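hey can u check if this looks right to u? its 133 residues, i copy pasted from the old doc so theres a chance i mangled smth
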Amino acid sequence: MFYIIGGVATLLFILVIIVFKEKPKHPPSRAQSLSYALASPDASYLSSIVRLFKNLNFVLLVITYGLNAGAFYALSTLLNRMVIIHYPGEEVNAGRIGLTIVIAGMLGAVISGIWLDRSKTYKNQCHLNCLIQ
């Protein structure tokens, strides 16, 4: 079964390499045409990554996302052990706790999205200076 999936994936990869071009002959819109005209030839992937990491807001976003995701992954990985040590035989409840964490995260994301949309606080341009004061 793995050989079949690997073969299909390899065939699709080869077809993508052969069929798809870097960019179309004619730009799909005026905005894309202007983008092609204004693109600097010296813009490389590495320079765009360096420019991105010089943006303080992006760095703060990466750090906060990393802390949040790391804490979630650590907790969800060790949840069963933590529960079983203190409450032997409660594997089902450990699963329920994990389900509760996931559902609470999903609801929190939806609620915070609605709140940001209604209050328009995502447009606040507060930089690190606002956080320090």
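The chain has a mean pLDDT of 86.
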